[in-house]
C-alpha cells in the first residue's frame, strides 16, 4: 500500500496528499483516478507534481547519481516546478520544500521494492521517471514552413537512450503524426503549439503506463491472498476532484465540474428526496 500511495499522490494548495487514488479488494490494488494527464502540466502553479518525482530526484541528488540519469542539478526541471516563474511554494508541507523527507521516503520505497523482488525492473523504473522529467524540457522551434522542429537534439537523445529507443525515430515522433485516410497513412507535421501538447501527453501516458505496470506487478505478488480468500465482499471509495475554477479554465474543468454537479444531484436524490418519500408513506 505504501508504494502505490507514493506513486499516485500529488499535492494541492494546503494539502500535501490530496490525490489518493487506490482501493483495496483483499490484496488487489486498482488505480482509479491517476491524474497524470492533469498534474504533469497543470495549468496553474499552486500544485506540486506526483510525489515520486520529487522523492526520486532528491534521492539521486543525495547519492550523486543525477548524471547517471542525465538529470540537471538544482531541480531545474519544468515538471518539478521548483523555482520556475509562476510556480510558487505556497504550502509549507509541499514536496518541493522537504528535501530530507523526500530522501527518507525514497529509501523506504527502495526497501519495499527489494522486498517485493522488483530486482532489475527497479532500474528501468528509475530510467522511465528520468525520461519523463527530461521530456518536459524538450522544446521546439519554428522552421521556414511554420512547422515544429526539435530545438535540442542532445536532450532528445538522452530521453531516447533512457527509454531504449532509436533516437531518429523518437525525434521524428515528437514533430510528426500520421492520419489514416482511405487505408493510407498520411504524414503531418506538428505546429509548435501542437508539438508541446503532444510532448506533455507523451509524458502523461508514460507515467500512467508505468503506474499500471507497477500495480499489476504488485497484484501478481499478492495474488495468493485473493485466491485463498476470494472477493465476495467489496467496499469502493470514490475520491473525485472537487469543483475547480482557475484563471484559465479548459475542457477538463468543465468535465470535472459537470460530474460534480451530477454527483451532487444524485446524492440529493438518494439522501433527501428518497427519505422524504419514505416518510410520506410512513405518515
UniProtKB/TrEMBL annotation:
Pfam families associated with the record: Myosin_head
Repeat found in the keyword field: yes
GO cellular component terms, A-Z: cell projection; myosin complex
SMART domains associated with the record: MYSc (SM00242)
PROSITE patterns: MYOSIN_MOTOR (PS51456)
Domain Myosin motor span(s) in chain numbering: 1-283
GO annotation, biological process: regulation of actin filament length
Annotated keywords: Actin-binding, ATP-binding, Cell projection, Cytoplasm, Cytoskeleton, Motor protein, Myosin, Nucleotide-binding, Repeat
Subcellular location: Cell projection; Cytoplasm, Cytoskeleton
GO molecular function: actin binding; ATP binding; microfilament motor activity; protein serine/threonine kinase activity
Keyword Cytoplasm: yes
Family of this protein: Belongs to the TRAFAC class myosin-kinesin ATPase superfamily. Myosin family.
Protein name (Swiss-Prot/TrEMBL): Similar to ninaC: Neither inactivation nor afterpotential protein C (Drosophila melanogaster)
Protein species of origin: Cotesia congregata
Amino acid at each position: 500500500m505504501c508504494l502505490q500511495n507514493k506513486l499516485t499522490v500529488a499535492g494541492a494548495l494546503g494539502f500535501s496528499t490530496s490525490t489518493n487514488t487506490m482501493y483495496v479488494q483483499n490484496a488487489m490494488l486498482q488505480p482509479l483516478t491517476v491524474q497524470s494527464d492533469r498534474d504533469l502540466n497543470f495549468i496553474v502553479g499552486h500544485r506540486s507534481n506526483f510525489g515520486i518525482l520529487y522523492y526520486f530526484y532528491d534521492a539521486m541528488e543525495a547519492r550523486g547519481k543525477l548524471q547517471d540519469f542525465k538529470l540537471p542539478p538544482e531541480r531545474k526541471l519544468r515538471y518539478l516546478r521548483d523555482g520556475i516563474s509562476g510556480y510558487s511554494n505556497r504550502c509549507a508541507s509541499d514536496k518541493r520544500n522537504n528535501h530530507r523527507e523526500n530522501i527518507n521516503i525514497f529509501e523506504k520505497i527502495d526497501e519495499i521494492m527489494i522486498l517485493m523482488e522488483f530486482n532489475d525492473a527497479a532500474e528501468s523504473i528509475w530510467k522511465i521517471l528520468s525520461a519523463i522529467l527530461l521530456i518536459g524540457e524538450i522544446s521546439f522551434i519554428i522552421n521556414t514552413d511554420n512547422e515544429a522542429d526539435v530545438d535540442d537534439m542532445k536532450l532528445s537523445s538522452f530521453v531516447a537512450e533512457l527509454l531504449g529507443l532509436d533516437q531518429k525515430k523518437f525525434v521524428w515522433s515528437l514533430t510528426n503524426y500520421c492520419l489514416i485516410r482511405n487505408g493510407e497513412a498520411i504524414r503531418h507535421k506538428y505546429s509548435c503549439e501542437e508539438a508541446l501538447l503532444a510532448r506533455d501527453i507523451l509524458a502523461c501516458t508514460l507515467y500512467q503506463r508505468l503506474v499500471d505496470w507497477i500495480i499489476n506487478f504488485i497484484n501478481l505478488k499478492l495474488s495468493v491472498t485473493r485466491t485463498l480468500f476470494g472477493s465476495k465482499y467489496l467496499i469502493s471509495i470514490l475520491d473525485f476532484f472537487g469543483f475547480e475554477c482557475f484563471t484559465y479554465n479548459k475542457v477538463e474543468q468543465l468535465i470535472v465540474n459537470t460530474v460534480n454537479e451530477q454527483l451532487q444531484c444524485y446524492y440529493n436524490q438518494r439522501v433527501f428526496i428518497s427519505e422524504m418519500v419514505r416518510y410520506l408513506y410512513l405518515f
